[in-house]
Amino acid sequence: MQQFSLLAIDCVGFGHSSKPKDFSYDLKDQADIMIHVLDQLNIERCHLIGHSMGGMIGILMLEKLQSRALSIVNMEANMTAKDSGASLTVVTQSLEEFSSGGYDAFKETVAESHEKGSEKRLQWLSLIPDFVFYKSAKSITQWANSEKILKFFLSAPQKKLFVYGDKNRDKAARLPDTIEKAEIPHAGHRMLADNVEETRRVIENFYREIAL
Fold it and tell me: Is 70 inside any structural domain?
């Protein structure tokens, strides 16, 4: 199997990236910055892997990258309103309401969930300011409601794989049979926490097959 370099980028506002208050945090702007990073590193060809919001950003990158993007692994990107999850609850509040108590309540819900990876998720949330989370949630719901992400994904000419947890088979059922799909057993939306070994296996198999 051909060897690849791995590039994992923290979006603006997330992880250890900068968190400017005047940035839009719109997914399209995040995608443009990702492409700028690829340009700065002189990366001429790439395969994209994105989970949830990252999957949405990856799909938005496809059109501009065109032939530079060889494939995309879409791990339950939020492509319709039904997929928006916690973002739907967040945007029922104003930014002021979310900042004054809503974000703390959300973190408490995560802490009390006892789901695999909840401790790691809380660590990640501690690095995300309230305004970043809120504006990102708003962009997620807007893009998902428009279903433009879904249309971009279905029409993209690149090789595609949709990865989903077996608890979310309804998401895969909404996609046509022309889309290659891989189900992760004993997993929900956070398949990298629920069943990391199987998730890695299906992604590795996908790349082995397209490398042939």
Answer: yes
* Containing structural domain, residue 77: 27-211
Q: Can you give the pLDDT of all 212 residues of the chain as single tens digits? A: 457 789 999 999 999 999 999 999 999 999 999 999 999 999 999 999 999 999 999 999 998 999 999 999 999 999 999 888 889 999 999 999 999 999 999 999 999 988 888 889 999 999 999 999 999 999 999 999 999 999 999 999 999 999 999 999 999 999 999 999 999 999 999 999 999 999 999 999 999 998 75
Report the predicted TM-score, pTM, of the whole model to 2 decimal places. 0.95
Upper half-sphere CA count for residue 175 (Cβ side, 13 Å): 28
Exposed/middle/buried for 83, CB within 10 Å: 0-12, 13-18, 19+? buried
Number of domains in the chain: 1
Positive or negative CA dihedral for 137, 141, 144, 149? negative
